[in-house]
Amino acid sequence: MAEGTSTSINIPQLIAVALVGFLAIRWFLNKPSTTTTSSSSSSTSRGRSIDVSKVEQVSAMFPQLDRRTIAWDLHRNGGNVAATTERVLAGRGLESPPPSFQPNLPLPAGSSSTTGAGAAGGNGGGAVKRHNAFGQPDLITRYNLQSRISGKGKEAVPSEEQQRNAWSADKSARAEGLRKRREEMILAARRKMEARDGEET
Amino acid sequence: MNSVASKRLFQEYKQLTLNPPDGITAGPVNEDDLFVWEALIQGPEDTPYAGGIFPAELKFPKDYPLMPPTMKFLCDIWHPNVYPNGVVCISILHPPGEDPNHYEQASERWSPIQSVEKILISVMSMIAEPNDESPANVDAARMWRERKGEFDKRVKMDVRRSLGL
């Protein structure tokens, strides 16, 4: 009889343990995915990523250092600016980050591409790489429009018919139309900017 | 599920082609995958962004239009509400329902009655009028608030550079 009661208590207990365990695992597995869905809101995303202002702080003291390297050290020591500074000053140098570590660092404020590459003479390669990693190519390069802007200078402005918005039944014709409208939008913006420059000089 | 999203996206693409809003061009990068779009947004006049063209990528979830797409600029855009990596932070792109932080009205957030066109128009007006209450780019927000002249100059330089001038 004593055995009978102990088993009848054990089974609900086992079920309860299994249920709690299952819920705990599910909660644990769900947690990262729910944070990523709401990551477009500022707070969560900032919490996960590197504090850019801290990187900036260290970078201001040691402009010769690669910002990604600084970010990596800060990432490892939990964002301790003093520890990173200490480490650099002690001459121990910073560890180079693994290639998989790609923080989203903005370009250094106020430094255009030219000054960025020029100022870091000793670390030129790094500076150029840095710019390529975080800067974006211009629109002309991005959409392969070099041939449309060089030489001709003043390109014929497309007539109204060509600009008409049409919906073709053919898939490739639609894609072509979209591409043309995109290119025309960029080239028109460039023409306008050039014209504005012409007026000023 | 998939076909609902695809049909709706195709319909929106058609509408945007036939009646594009001023200064906006948008469509799928490749029609075989309607869930990735590329949009061009013209910088609003009378702002430092005027004259610029800003490309952005829109990625739609499989349960669109129940959930909103994400939007990421593919160019350098110095703006208080755009993360340094280009991701746009705007209420219309936030999942439907109440804001856990109580900053936004539920009506400002995404709902299936919104559309790609409304997103792009909202982003265009966001470009013109930054909201510095919840900045995505803290440095840009600070510069916009405290050193407007420097901010404008930087944006204008980025615009010129993006046009290859």
TrEMBL record, chain A:
- Residues passing through the membrane, by range: 12-29
Q: Which GO terms describe its molecular function?
A: ubiquitin binding
Q: Where is the composition biased (Basic and acidic residues)?
A: 152-163, 171-180
Under the heading SUPFAM superfamilies, the entry gives: UBA-like
**Compositionally biased tracts (Low complexity):** 102-117
Membrane topology, as annotated, equals: Single-pass membrane protein
Compositionally biased residues, Gly residues:
118-127
Alphabetic keyword roster? Endoplasmic reticulum, Membrane, Transmembrane, Transmembrane helix, Ubl conjugation pathway
What does the UniProt entry say about where the protein is found? Endomembrane system; Endoplasmic reticulum membrane
Q: Name one GO cellular component term.
A: endoplasmic reticulum membrane
Transmembrane as a keyword of this entry, yes or no, is yes
A Pfam family of this chain: CUE
Q: Where is the CUE domain?
A: 50-93
**Residue segments, region Disordered:** 92-132, 150-180
Q: Which family does it belong to?
A: Belongs to the CUE1 family.
Protein name per Swiss-Prot or TrEMBL: Coupling of ubiquitin conjugation to ER degradation protein 1
Q: Which species is the source of this protein?
A: Neohortaea acidophila
Automatic annotation (TrEMBL), chain B:
Query: SMART domains this protein is in?
Result: UBCc (SM00212)
Q: Which GO terms describe its molecular function?
A: ATP binding; ubiquitin conjugating enzyme activity
UBC core domain location, by residue?
A: 4-164
Alphabetical keyword list: ATP-binding, Nucleotide-binding, Thioester bond, Transferase, Ubl conjugation pathway
CDD domains in the record, alphabetically? Answer: UBCc_UBE2G2
Note whether Magnesium occurs among the keywords: no
One matching Pfam family: UQ_con
The record's Gene Ontology biological-process terms are: ERAD pathway
What does it catalyze?
S-ubiquitinyl-[E1 ubiquitin-activating enzyme]-L-cysteine + [E2 ubiquitin-conjugating enzyme]-L-cysteine = [E1 ubiquitin-activating enzyme]-L-cysteine + S-ubiquitinyl-[E2 ubiquitin-conjugating enzyme]-L-cysteine
Q: What is its EC number?
A: 2.3.2.23
**InterPro entries in the record, alphabetically?**
Ub_conjugating_enzyme, UBC, UBQ-conjugating_AS, UBQ-conjugating_enzyme/RWD
Q: Active-site positions, per UniProt?
A: 89
Xref: PANTHER family: UBIQUITIN-CONJUGATING ENZYME E2
Q: Which family does it belong to?
A: Belongs to the ubiquitin-conjugating enzyme family.
Indicate what this protein is called per its UniProt record: Ubiquitin-conjugating enzyme E2 2
Tell me the classification of the organism that encodes this protein. Answer: Eukaryota, Fungi, Dikarya, Ascomycota, Pezizomycotina
